[in-house]
Each structure stands twice: as structure tokens, then as C-alpha cells.
Amino acid sequence: MRRLIKVTLFCLVLSSPLLTSEFLFGDTLQNLIPGDYNGNGASDIVWRDSSGNVGMWLMDGLSITKSGTIANIQTGWTIVGTGDFDGDGKADVLWRDTAGSVAIWLMDGFSVTSFSTIANIQTGWTIVGTGDFNGDGKADILWRDTAGSVAIWLMDGLSITSFSTIANVWTGWTIVGTGDFDGDGKADVLWRDTGGSVAIWLMGGFSVTSFSTVGFSGKVTSIAFDPSKSATVYAATIGSGMYQTSDGGQTWIASNAGLPKDILSLAVDPASSGIVYAGTRIGVFKSVNGGVSWNSAGSDLLKAPIRALAIDPRHPATIFAATERSGVFKSLNGGLSWSVAGTGLPATATVQSLAIDPVNSDIIYAGTDVLLPARAEVFRSNDGGEHWESSWLPASSKVVAQTIYALVVDPSNPAVIYAGTLNPDIGSNFDQAGAFKSSDGGQTWTGMQGLWGQDHRAIRSMALDPIHTSNLYAASMNGFLWRSTDAGERSTTASFGVRNPTLAIDPTNPSTIYAGDGLGKGIFKSTNAGVSWQHLDIN
Fold first, then answer.
1. Which of 24, 81, 268, 455 is the most buried (most CB within 10 A)?
2. Mean pLDDT calculated for residue range 463-486
3. Which residues of 224-237 are buried (b: 16+ CB within 10 A; e: fewer)?
């Protein structure tokens, strides 16, 4: 069985080995704080009472070998953690007051050998852990703010030697501890989300060197390839966020640092493979580091579900986002700002699919979902989305497609376009197709009788071999796959068991095809042009 590394890249983060002094974290009152305060290798206990008295028990197993009161500290101050900040092998005490000031006591048994207020940090930030993140033998401090940003202070005793905000992680994830999980002498970060998933980031200073989560489930909605390394594939899901593989599907990692759980669409910059866009239920998110971390792309984009994304192949900073009930939005600067893409689409259109002419990228196609009294149609823009007009079958055709699920443009002959639809049988249209083809840029369409058979009226996904463009694939909602080698004139069909599928073809090796199951069964792969399929163990 293939090993799946289930990884969750949430926010960026840090690493630090779990010292005996690192057990309790958080800006809340702690009555008992363990740590090896006298350096004998056994944990001791610092305690504090309601009057502000700070005391210590030196421990030997279950026995208190010595006890005493160290000081009385005003109640505005709280012990928020411990760590060996000066590297002397003895735990020190980390404090914070209600105004945000941070202070450290350097300890030697019962004695405070040195102390200092280090800085004042706005109260939106909370200390969430300590650990030796850079492996210098001294504890550092891990922070997170209310918006999800994660930061680290590298420490040398009472001095901050370096600091950095590493990333912003979706607030559904919480840092629950630190520890040296891989034994490299540097602390790592332990996470948990609201759904119970547990994840680890292996750290090297300010860098996440590896990451892993336990448990995967999710309905695959979109698959996209890295254009420069086709062994790197991204898979979007509803329920489990984003996954990626760098070895052709043998192992997968979750790439969710900063992402919501429900991802509806994906697009990878054709000119810069580290730039990836994800369409979510609350807008577009962008990664500039190959999915390591994500941030919301543009505050002026409507916070609506993004059903499809398309990138202009000639001008990759131009992106189109298809929304639910709000038409198409366009960005000219890589998602920094957005505006409604022109006029001509129904005012409350749900756009389900997008396709851009690869030769003349001013020509864009948008497939809509039915919104009565309108009907699902294909729209075309000839001016980069400024104006749209219907480019679909007339109402007299009796084609009552409820959704245009898929649009594919032939890269070798962009006048040829394929559309996969849900076109239910209502009696009067019993002889109609579910897949349609235009050979004149969408001016006229014909039903593809060559893609016929069980479930043929519910074509959920279509894909075209980018090298031999007469090789066409279409998959239905209930798991049937059509393979044609003559642009859809004839085909073979078989059940391949992937329901509500999404198809993606390897751009450099088109006999390799990935299919994602939209009902939660994971990802399948074919290396022989769809003849047989292997389930990739992703759930």
C-alpha cells in the first residue's frame, strides 16, 4: 500500500524541542508550573497563590526535597510559560502583564539570578509556546495573534536576537504544544483543528521543513498540475482543504496553512509554478510558495463561493473567478484587487465553469448554472471579460441543460470547444446528448452522439490530451468514463467507479490521468490513458 503522509500546512511555524520545562503555555493564570529549576534532571514545580506569592517545590520523583517562597508579584502579572532561555540547563520563568509587557526570570533553584522586562506587545498577540526552535540550546518564544498570524522570538537569555512573523493560519487551527518530534535538536509545532485533526510541523528555525497530519477525508473538487514539474499535483477538497503530491501521487501532504476547509476550485500560474490560487466558499486564496502557506487574495472580492478559476496564459497576473450568483470577477494584479468582469451575464448568474482561448486570451467562455427563469448557457467574451453574450444553443433546440459543468478549448484549434452538461431527460428531449461540441468558437453546437450510453446526459468533467488533441475524455456524475481518439466521433465507455469526478491530464505525459471522487473516495490514477485505474491511498 502506498504511504500517505497526511500533512497540514497551516500557518507557518516554528520548531522547538520539548524541554522538561515546556509543558504549560498560554496567557492564563497557572497555579502549578513544572520545570527543572535546579538543573538536576528532574522536574520541579513553581506555584503561585491568589495573593501573588510565588513559591517552588524541588522534586525527586514523588518527594518534595525542598520548598520555599521566592517572591510576591502583583496580580497584574501572570506566568505564561517556562524554558531554559540562557542555556544553563535550568528552567527559567516567562511572565506577561495585563498591559502586554513580557518579562523573564533567569533561575538557579530558588534564586532569581537576573530579570528584565523584554518588550511590550499589543494584547492581540498571545504567547502560545516556548522551545529551542533554532537548536542553540536556548528556549525561544512562539506567538500567535487573534487573526491567526504566527511569529517567533529567537532568544539569548534576556535578549531577543531575531524575530519574524512566519505566516497566517486559518483560525480553525490551534497550536497545542511544542516538542522535538524528529530528534534533530530543534523544537517542532503541534496543531489541532476544530474537527479534531492533529498535525505536526517539523521546524528549522523560522522554516517549516516538513509537515504531516493524521486522517484524510474530503470530496475532491479540482486537480491541477505544477506546469514545470508534472509529478507535483494539487488536489482540492470539500472538508479537508488542499492536498499536494510531489512524487506523482505516491505520498500526499495537506497544504492548508491559512486555508479554509472547503476548496471548490484551483489554478496554478503557468509562468510561476509556486503561485497557486484556491477558490473557496469565502473567496480566493493565494499561495506564493507552492502551497506552504496561504492568504486571502484581495479584500474587495465578494466573499462568495468561487466555482471556477482561470488564468490568462499570456498575462498570468490576470485571473478570472467564477462566483455563485454574482457572475465573474477579474483581477489584473495577481489577486491584489478585483472588479466585476464586464456586462452581459445574468445579474445573479452562478458561473460553474471557465475556459480561456490559449491563442487569443481575450476570448473567454463561461458556463452557467440554471437560475430560473434563466437557463444554463455558455457565454463568450471577445474583449477579456468586458462584455459577454450568449454563445449557446437557442431555446428552440429544447436543450434544457441545468448546468454547464465543463468547458474545454482545443489548444491546437481554439475554434473547437467542448461542453459537459447536466441535460436531464424531460420526455420531449429524450434523444439529446450531455456533451456538446462547437467547431466555430461557440456560434453553433452539436450534441456528441459519439459520447453516448448509460448516464451520458450528466457529464461532470471533460479533459483533452494537450499533445494529441483528438484524444478526449469525459466522465459522468455516476462514474462512467468515455475515451475517444477521434475528437468524440466514436468512443469506448466503461464504469470506473469515480462519482462526481474531476479529471486532469499530465501535461507532459498525457497517458497519465488523475480522477478525483466528488463523494469522498479520494483520488485515482491511470497511467495507460484511462484503460485501468489505481486508487491512491488518500483516505
1. 81
2. 96
3. bbbbeebbbbbbbb
Place of cell 474583449: 383
Which residues 6+ apart lie within 8 Å of 482 measured at CB? 435, 451, 453, 456, 472, 473, 474, 475, 491, 492, 493
Neighbouring residues of 347: CB distance < 8 A, sequence distance ≥ 6: 327
Q: What nine digits make up the cell of 170?
A: 486559518
Helix (H/G/I), strand (E/B), else coil: 216 = coil
Lowest-confidence segment of 128-137, 211-220, 339-348, 389-398 by average pLDDT: 211-220
How far is Cα 453 from Cα 152, in angstroms, rounded to an integer? 59
The alpha carbon of residue 363 and the mean position of all alpha carbons in its chain are separated, in whole angstroms, by 30
Dihedral sign computed on CA atoms, order 127, 128, 134, 138:
positive
Q: What is the pLDDT of residues 127-141, one digit of tens each?
A: 999 999 999 999 999
Residue whose C-alpha cell is 497566517: 168
CA 210 – CA 189 distance, rounded (Å):
11
Q: Cis ω on the peptide bond leading into residue 373 (within 30° of 0)?
A: yes
Q: Which residue has the cell 493560519?
A: 169
Q: What angle do CA 268, 408, 298 make, to 5 degrees?
A: 35
Helix (H) or strand (E) holding 53, with range, is strand 53-60
CA distance 322 to 331: 12
The pLDDT assigned to 28 comes to 39
pLDDT tens, residue by residue, 313-324? 999 999 999 999
Q: How far apart are CA 106 and CA 139, in angstroms?
A: 12
Q: Which three cell numbers stand for residue 232?
A: 507535483
Lowest-confidence pick of 106-110, 391-395, 491-495, 511-515: 391-395
Beta bridge partners of 244: 234, 253
Which pLDDT belongs to residue 38? 93
Among residues 259, 295, 275, 262, the alpha carbon closest in space to that of 226 is found at 275
Determine how β-strand 173-179 pairs with β-strand 159-168: unpaired
What are residue 295's DSSP bridge partners? Answer: 286
Q: pLDDT averaged over the chain?
A: 86
DSSP single-letter state for residue 458: B
Q: What is the reported pTM?
A: 0.64
